[in-house]
Structure formats: C-alpha cells, structure tokens
Amino acid sequence: MVKERGRKVIAQNRRARHDWSVLDTYEAGIALTGTEVKSLRQGKASLVDGFATVDDGEVWLRNVHIPEYTEGTWTNHEPRRSRKLLLHRHEILRLVGKIKETGLSLVPMSLYFSDGKAKVELALARGKKAHDKRQDLAKRDAEREIQREMGRRAKGIR
Question: Which of 140, 123, 104 is nearest to 47 (CA)?
Fold first, then answer.
C-alpha cells in the first residue's frame, strides 16, 4: 500500500477573499463518513455558502456541499449535513474568544487532502463593506497596470 504524500486541493472558496478580510487561518480535520471521503476523492465539493460555528465547545462546518457518492447505496450521506471539525482544545478556546468580537466569522477557504487525510483551511475573517471591495479592485487594477508598464519598458517598447 502506497501512502499519499503532499497536499491535493479538492475545492477552494475563491469568493471568500473578495467578500472577507482574512485575519488568521487554521487547519482542521473533518469527521466524515465513508461515502463522503469517496466523493471527495472524485474531486467533488463546494464551499460557496459554507461557514463554521462553535457550539458547546465543538466546531461544526455547516452548509458545505459534498455531493452523494455516485456508486453509493442506501448508506449514502446527506450532501449538506453539518460536519464536526477536529481542532485542539486550545485552538477552539482561542476561536471562541475571537468570535465573540463583533463581526468576526469562521469561513472555509479550501478543502484538501493532506497526507491522505481530509482537511479544511478555516479563516477567521471580518466581512468587507462594498467600498472596501471597490478599493481592493482598484488597487489590484493599478498594480496590474504598473506591472504591464514595467514589462513594456523592459522590452523597450516605450
């Protein structure tokens, strides 16, 4: 049996960096059923509406869509069920303290296999306002234009 090495990304939440300003990230394991793991190995998952909550000292991943396994039988899983996240106690306590601050949320950034185990990267994030999003877009466009101009000058076009 060959053990998997490295990190194989299954799904990323690309919209999250646009809608949230990330303050800190955490890596957590996920408690999954067999058909969920098989579905993930096929590369199917969606983090679009996902979020995490802390309830009674446990962290739960909610609203993440892992489609039913195509070869599954009556033992198949519910696609949007709540899944328990596996974190150390001190990490959970730190998260509880930070989430109590106003406006902070736990957002899943990516879902991946690390050395054969399913993991999720959680971001402690604050929601962006519309003007923040516009500023980020303008800043990114300005940086892109600067890079283009530097490339042109290096080639001697201007």
Answer: 123
Domain 7-127 = CATH 3.30.70.270: no
Task: Report how far residue 35's alpha carbon sits from residue 73's, in angstroms, rounded to the nearest whole number.
Answer: 9
Tell me the per-residue pLDDT of 115-135, one tens digit each, with 9 for 90 and over. Answer: 888 899 998 888 777 777 788
Residues in contact with 157: Cβ distance below 8 Å, sequence separation at least 6, in sequence order: none
Q: Which residues pair with 102 in a beta bridge?
A: none
Domain limits, the chain: 7-127, 129-158
| 38 token code pair | 């098989």
Please give the full DSSP string across 93-111, using - where no structure is assigned.
Answer: HHHHHHHTSTTEEEEEEEE
Dump pLDDT digits (tens) for 44-91. 888 888 888 888 888 898 988 888 877 767 777 777 888 899 999 999
| pTM recorded for the entire structure | 0.73
Quick one: which of 59, 122, 51, 121 has its CA closest to 89? 59
- What are the b/e assignments for 5-44, b being 16+ CB within 10 Å? eeeeebbbbeebbeebeeeeebebebebbebbbbbbeeeb
Quote the Cα angle for 7-49-79, to 5°.
Answer: 75
